[in-house]
Amino acid sequence: MENETVSKNFIEQIIDKDLAEGVYDTVHTRFPPEPNGYLHIGHAKSILLNYGLAQEYHGKFNMRFDDTNPTKEKIEFVESIKEDIKWLGADWEDRLYFASDYFDQMYENAVKLIKKGKAYVDDLNAEQIREYRGTLKEPGKESPYRDRSVEENLKLFQEMKDGKYADGEKVLRAKIDMASPNMNMRDPVIYRVAHMTHHNTGDKWCIYPMYDFAHPIEDAIEGITHSICTLEFEDHRPLYDWVVRELEYPHPPKQIEFAKLYLTNVVTGKRYIKKLVEEGIVDGWDDPRLVSIAALRRRGFTPESIKMFVELCGVSKANSSVDYAMLEYCIREDLKMKRPRMMAVLDPIKLVIDNYPKDQIEYLDVVNNLENEELGHRKVPFSRELYIEREDFMEVPPRKYFRLFPGNEVRLMHAYFVKCESFVKDENGKVIEVHCTYDPSTKGGNAPDGRKVKGTIHWVSAEEGRPVKVRLYENIIDESKGVYNEDGSLNLNPNSLQEVTAYVEPELMKAKAYDSFQFVRNGYFCADSKDSKEGEPVFNRIVSLKSSFKLPKA
Ligand code: ATP
Ligand code: MG
User: Whole-angstrom Cα distance, residue 256 to residue 233?
Assistant: First the structure.
């Protein structure tokens, strides 16, 4: 029991305390994205954290679009965000909300503040407000309009709502403290005039609430208990508390901040991704080189792997950056036991078995995953002509090279021992064919006389195998030079996408979008959801098999 407490993160500790002290008798969290872009791996952390806490404490989790800013919101993003969250497995049940549905209540709340003498209409323009605000060292100055009467404020605010004023002509401000050491408390603007059409409320409103006023109200209306956000809002917490207190909500929510998740040398900024998409450098927001949730899904990551990753990252108050290799570790761990291990040759060279009967095809029985019997068996065609990886043959082998070279015997995985007899070069001196003989008594991969071979190589039948398009990826950023150039542009890696024609077992031609496999020695691959056609898959490499990543010691 004690260990359990120790291993809890700081948010769980706050919740435990709140429940023990009766501050709340339930846990209700939410995920509140602005529908102004696609979600990325950082958002996944927030989603899984909020949903995970609701589950852990048998509470509730709300999905809420924070669409108070009519300039940026787009319906397209609403749909993609919902899809991503569902895919991650976070279930909001019937609690899908839009902040814009609360505009009437927000307006009423603003009126309430005015009536309490806690808000006033200000005629200062944006620049003057900034000047009057003071600095971190100097207190601000009070606006000459600060002491307007409640009646005058009510009338002016009503007029703001009725469209009497142009954008920026008047604002509603909370009346707090112009001398507060916290700049956010120096009479923040809570409503502005903006003659803009909103995707949800149309032209009903020409005044819109500011985030710091709207967010606590949204949370309070929905009965959120723990409003979890990222560190940059820490200084806004006193204002959050002020809003829920002054509006006299009976069970005020509590804001808790945690550190954002950053990946080293990985771009997540909307502005940058948008540019990559617009310039056609990537194939949309879900290009498999990106780390939007849609891109990770297309690449072949699973919800389980992302969950594992987020859990390994932990929840903390200190900003830090995590290595992409850790994400790769998680997908390998997840797929290792779940996926069949197939044979695919990415850089093919022909191997001819001179003593194997022409026109004979054998269907070898192959186990799908040695570590997981449940995945069953399949048949793999074997023939006289095969493809093997170019790197699996060397004319002059270096030390410790145990694959094919003249005179050496190796095992063809799941098949026979073959011995290299000769090879053929083209006019440029490039090896184009390797010739071997096989030992029929070694079928299945073992010699009855007990002799051993040190190398095992994979292969695909040249007659029965099929060519497919395979995409190999590197980071879209040139890691050797960091993410940004001096002029602020992205430092792109010209080799981030490589397309090859590989030969694969015929079985792989049945792959459907999102099906993933291990290709022995080459990594994990996933059938692309955009470019695969029925019977004609295109494979994306999710991750290679090797890694220098070590799980940090607990
Ligand atoms: P914007 O700059 O447009 O505000 P944003 O990334 O903050 O972008 P939001 O839609 O406001 O996007 O974010 C929704 C939620 O996801 C917020 O609660 C935010 O704190 C959280 N979040 C955003 N980025 C990260 C991140 N890198 N790690 C963890 N949580 C994040
Ligand atoms: Mg935000």
Answer: 9
The reported pTM is 0.93
Cα–Cα distance measured from residue 269 to residue 43, given in angstroms and rounded to the nearest whole number: 12
* Structure-block tokens of residue 209: 């609430």
Q: Whose CA is nearest to atom 25 of ligand 1?
A: 42
Exposed/middle/buried for residue 162 (C-beta within 10 Å: 0-12, 13-18, 19+): exposed
Alpha-carbon 529 to chain mean position: 17
Percent of the chain with pLDDT over 70: 97
Please tell me the predicted confidence (pLDDT) of residue 554. 52
CA–CA dist 13, 451 (Å, integer): 62
Calculate how far, in angstroms, residue 164's C-alpha sits from the geometric centre of ligand 2.
Answer: 31
Pocket around ligand 1 at a 6 A CB cut-off:
32-34, 36, 42-43, 45-46, 229-230, 260-261
Residue 171 Cα to chain centre, angstroms: 38
Distance 186 CA to ligand 1 centre (A): 25
Cα gap 261→313, rounded to integer Å: 8
Relative to the CA of 228, which ligand 1 atom is closest? 18
Structure tokens, 65? 């679009």
pLDDT at 2 over 50: no
Q: How far apart are the first and last CA of the chain?
A: 18
Question: What's the half-sphere exposure (Cβ side, CA atoms, 13 Å) at 325?
Answer: 10
Instruction: Tell me the best of 11, 39, 43, 240 to mutate to test the pocket of ligand 1, counting ligand atoms within 8 Å of each CB and taking the most.
Output: 43
Task: Print burial letters for 448-478: b (CB count within 10 Å at least 16), e (below 16).
Answer: eeeeebeebbbbbbbebbbebbbbbbebbbb
- How far apart are the CA of 374 and the centre of ligand 2, in A? 45
Q: Is the pLDDT at 1 greater than 50, yes or no?
A: no
Cα angle at 324 between 9 and 320, to 5 degrees?
45
